[in-house]
Design goal:
Length: 263
């Protein structure tokens, strides 16, 4: 399917690694020009060097919680790449509480990274799409539907807010030809996950999915890019879960055990 990205410009926040990197590469393979940003210059440079063979790439160091910085980044992209047609808000972080309580600083940090960044990003995109149309995709998380105690105590509520934000902005931007959708990834094996999550926990999470495995970043990227393209022209205000069927049934291993018994 031709998604209609040839000659178009796509922006991916957090595009230097993980899911964001996979989204950027998928856009490039579809013929789009791509702009990426992140906080770490070395990671951006490395991503650029590896992606530049796929197409035109612009990168810029950015703290996505900096309101003025996000708007300036959007202006730079539009100037260098000729407008903005698709925008992906792909930023998240979690924080661990010290003992039983979170501090105000903890809450401000995760609200800024997980929620404010999406608000600023969507508003920056809309400034450049208002008169010509476009698509915005927010990256939420399965934690928005299935809260995680401990590691993601605040992350889940913030990602649930992203789902609601998506629906709200879809309603506000519809008349201007700007669609706003959301993707809710399940457990995805990014470099950060491989480096920080024990194998036993990865196996446990895989066993909780109907597909009996975790996602690769490219498997999340494909639906994200689709939602930005012309094939999704009648989709807005919707959230697409890409979780491999996590927590859909109480006995996710049933079909695998049945198949094994038939062998």
């Amino acid at each position: 399917m031709d998604l209609g990205f040839k000659g178009k410009t796509a922006v991916v926040l957090g595009g230097s690694k993980g899911i964001g990197r996979a989204v950027a590469e998928t856009f490039l393979k579809e013929g789009a020009k791509v702009a990426i940003c992140a906080r770490k210059e070395d990671e951006l440079k490395a991503a650029y060097e590896e992606m530049k063979g796929l197409g035109e790439v612009y990168w810029e160091v950015l703290d996505v919680t900096d309101e003025a910085g996000v708007y300036a980044f959007a202006d730079h992209v539009a100037e260098k790449l000729g407008g903005i047609d698709a925008w992906v808000n792909n930023v998240g972080a979690t924080v661990f509480k010290d003992g039983d309580e979170f501090t105000g600083k903890d809450i401000d940090f995760i609200t800024g990274v997980c929620f404010k960044s999406a608000v600023f990003g969507a508003q920056a995109a809309f400034r450049h799409m208002k008169n010509k149309g476009g698509a915005i995709v927010n990256i939420s998380s399965l934690a928005a539907r299935c809260p995680t105690a401990g590691r993601s105590t605040l992350y889940g509520p913030m990602k649930a807010a992203i789902v609601n934000l998506t629906q709200t902005l879809a309603g506000e931007y519809a008349a201007y030809g700007v669609r706003v959708c959301c993707v809710m990834p399940g457990f995805t094996v990014t470099p950060a996950v491989r480096a920080t999550i024990p194998q036993a926990e990865l196996d446990y999470n895989a066993a909780g999915t109907l597909l009996n495995r975790l996602a690769e970043p490219r498997e999340i990227a494909a639906p994200v890019v689709f939602l930005c393209g012309q094939g999704a022209s009648y989709m807005t205000g919707t959230t697409v879960e890409v979780s491999g069927g996590r927590s859909v049934t109480l006995n996710p291993t049933y079909s695998w055990e049945k198949k094994a018994s038939e062998a």
